[in-house]
Amino acid sequence: MIIPGKHRCVLFDVDGTIAETEGHAHLPAFNRAFAEAGLSWHWSREDYRQLLKTTGGFERLLRHAHDIGEDAEALRESLLQVHRAKNRHFATIMQSGAVPARAGFRTLLMTLALNNVAWGVVTTTSRANWDALWSCSLAPLVIPEPAVIVCGEDVGAKKPDPEAYELALARLGLPAQRCCAIEDSRNGMLAARLAGLAVAIVKSEFFRDERFDEAQVVVDELTELVPVMEWV
Ligand code: XBP
Ligand code: MG
Fold first, then answer.
1. Rounded to two decimals, what is the model's pTM?
2. Would you give the DSSP letter of residue 143?
3. What per-residue confidence (pLDDT) applies to 207?
4. I need a surface site. Which of 39, 49, 121, 224 has the fewest CB within 10 A?
């Protein structure tokens, strides 16, 4: 799928794709924020699997409030504070070193670099969460920096809307045919496909049973994408 010479940049989703941040960091951070705010909410892994169908942590909080019959709009201000606290706990968890990059991430990046292919980040997570993952888990791997970074705050509509991918392409000044994407969720795959990109899916903890019919390739681990020419 990646053709060095034709493809100039591989766009990586973050949560679930570069690292298993959802189960190891976002979910415990949400539950810590709920307890801290004195809320009786507590999300199990099964709750979270369902809630992840809504992209964006704040949007996920609004949806949960709605699902349990609360007036989500009336709670908007207090949920904004809960979301801020969640991201603070996320940073603390990342600083503890609890969430390494997925197997093969570094080797894949170095292989892309050897083939003169850049990489970028297209995520619906908050910029602060990307910064925490980068400084705690990725920069220590001594890898090239991403050529473009698009985060949740940069777009009006989150995945599966293609806006984040379209913005990354515009910032790179490249057409969709010169890039491709690596995603772990159906929403992410649809966003990339709608922007005209070929997509490789790497299966992750919460999305492994989703439908990925529209993807060009589906693998269990990033290690399987390392021989980049074999994606063709
Ligand atoms: C990631 C998300 C994010 C994180 C939480 O989706 O949906 O919302 O779960 O991040 P994707 P924030 O991997 O498809 O980009 O709380 O910062 O929104
Ligand atoms: Mg993801």
1. 0.95
2. -
3. 98
4. 39
